[in-house]
Design a protein that fits this description.
Ferritin-like_SF; oxidoreductase activity
């Protein structure tokens, strides 16, 4: 990333690190009003969010595999800001769910799939690495925007049930750090998209369509788990959750398809998650 845009992005990352250090567990008030009720209503949501946050270690392995020569600002972001912050988010959420009597989150921290290894091999070609970087930024935007919206809904649900300590000292500090991550991905995506050649943009569209999945979904069981989270937080196919998650993606990749609210592959992924949840419940 060149010139002034790159300088602004680096300043943003440095500011994130300075103004938002990883949340200390000592600042959290884990007291609850109704442990059984909290576990029954939101336990599976806490577990899902804890797992996704804790799997940041695997995400970094995937990044270093997929992007063998990333820009320095990307490395500073995921090594010095994103990974330490997300790890603490996961530890706090996992501590909370264990205090409610649930088992610790089951995480996959070190598996890098064969498709990513192939992408990593191809990414030694700089032009193809830019395609992979764009996919990384798109995934980051979707993930972080989903997190912001989901934490907002969880915070409101906790407050409505009287669990004010958890809402204000667990969820509120975590959600406060997510928009800065989203801003990094959005700034990076807009800048890189403007630099891509036509054939690179075509590849990004094709590969995004084929690879998209909701945050944290890597298999059928997790797809149903995500559907459970959607149902608990009141996210259905009539809500604008998916539209908010993919707003910038629509602007960049699919500006020519102005009649669509969300890319079809996103709508299908959210629909399939809800259907998987309903089928498992039945």
């Amino acid at each position: 990333m060149r010139g002034t845009a790159g300088d602004r992005l680096l300043a943003h990352v440095q500011r994130l690190g300075e103004e938002h250090p990883p949340i200390s567990v000592e600042t959290v008030d884990f007291s609850v009003v109704d442990a059984a009720g909290l576990e029954r209503r939101f336990g599976h949501v806490l577990d899902y969010m804890a797992r996704v946050e804790l799997e940041v270690d695997r995400n970094v392995l995937e990044l270093t595999t997929m992007l063998p020569d990333p820009p320095e600002v990307d490395v500073i972001f995921y090594r010095d800001v994103w990974q330490p912050q997300e790890t603490q988010h996961g530890l706090i959420l996992d501590t909370l769910q264990q205090r409610l009597g649930r088992p610790p989150a089951t995480t996959d921290l070190d598996r890098v799939g064969p498709k990513l290894r192939v992408l990593g091999a191809l990414s030694h070609l700089p032009a193809f690495q830019d395609v992979c970087r764009m996919l990384y930024y798109l995934t980051g935007m979707s993930t972080e925007r989903s997190a912001v919206l989901a934490y907002n809904l969880l915070h409101d649900g906790l407050a409505d049930t009287g669990e004010q300590a958890i809402a204000s000292t667990v969820v509120a500090p975590i959600r406060r750090q997510e928009p800065g991550h989203y801003a990094f991905y959005q700034l990076s995506a807009r800048q890189l998209w403007s630099e891509l050649a036509g054939w690179q943009r075509f590849l990004v569209r094709v590969m995004r369509r084929l690879s998209y999945a909701p945050v944290g979904v890597n298999n059928d069981e997790q797809r149903a788990d995500f559907g459970d989270v959607m149902a608990t937080l009141g996210i259905d196919e009539e809500s604008d959750f998916a539209a908010q998650v993919t707003r910038v993606e629509m602007q960049l990749l699919w500006a020519r398809d102005r009649g669509l609210r969300v890319p079809p592959y996103v709508a299908r992924a959210f629909h399939d998650a809800l259907e998987a949840s309903r089928a498992r419940a039945a």
